[in-house]
Design a protein that fits this description.
There is one protein chain. By secondary structure, the protein is of the alpha+beta class. The chain contains 4 helices and 5 strands; from the N terminus they run ααββαβββα. A hairpin with a 5-residue loop joins strand 1 and strand 2. The longest helix has 43 residues.
Amino acid sequence: MLKKALMILCLAALPLSVQAKSSEEKRQEILKMRDGVLEKLYESNKETKSMIAEAEGYAVFNSGGVNLILLSAGSGTGVAHDNKSGENIFMKMATGGVGIGLGVKDYRTVMIFHKRSAFEQFVDKGWDFSGQADAAATVDEKGAQASGADTVVSGVSVYQMTKTGLALQATLQGTKYWQNDKLNKK
């Protein structure tokens, strides 16, 4: 009877240990993505390295999106980094919008927060409404893209890079960012 009870207890605890390892693996995957995106950003926009170093914080997101004629939607994960404390805050995002377009794309977004209040509001509240227009045709990071993104939040610079996809769109987007409670637990 004791053996059965120990076996059941071990089996019940197994998902917790797997989940803890899984969360750590996900954190490491997001940090690796962030480092790769920043490296590419620094190559194409050399001034961003000093902008990020002098900023209050920054965020990097890996996102995917679909645009079907009048509606667009997307989701992703990322990390906000507080330059003052050195803390990484893992986050999720979802976006939806209206506008004209057609396509699917996998893209990366980097936000640089020049004001402390903008960084804190992003991490705590997470909303960003933005307009977006782009044309992209890339596969395995080969191809061409022309994109622009702007934010209505003062004190924030936004850079967007398409990794893969084919899209032609002009949309008005609403994007919600929020903390990933599961990945922020230590």
